[in-house]
Amino acid sequence: MGLFEWFKATSSNVMVLNDVIWLTSQAKLNAIRQAVAHRLDQQTGPVAIILVAHFPDCLAELQQLVEQVGPSDSITVASARALKREMASTASFDASLIVDMLVAERHPVPSHDEAVLNFAQSLPCQCRLVHHLSLEDPVVRAIAGEWVDTILKKLGMAEDEAIESKMVARRIRAAQEKLGSRCLTDYPADSAQEWLERNCPQV
Question: What is the CATH number of the domain that holds 70?
Fold first, then answer.
């Protein structure tokens, strides 16, 4: 089953896919690059691909990824905090456009992820939204710990295989909400790790 076929309707114009969880950060980036290349190859009409990151270090990785895929007017790399500003031209999006939003991380505070979804829902066209995570992501490590990585490797999960489980996604979401409630502040940072150290020193 293709990546963009795992749909869960959340509004009239947005289809949200299950989180796709990888063992390593490199496997996650490889998968995003492959998904972008596949979408461009399968393009049959107007399409826009928006790669989203919450933190500058991840944003830089996505920008390098786009350079590897090759230049395309269909691809935009955007900061989650600045989606509305960076995508100010969304007024020119017509109903025939299909927007694919690939978010390369979760934020420790769920409201930041909800803001990305709200932006997608504000678009005047169809949008497909998916989060790619890895067990090496600081937020996932803070939520799940290293034991998840150890168990999956013992079960024989390869680096290029992904978890696409609603149950796992729900557990991560619940743990994310618990983590977010323990954060004392919400100061910006250059990375998820720095954000956790500044805002959740007890984690």
Answer: 3.40.50.300
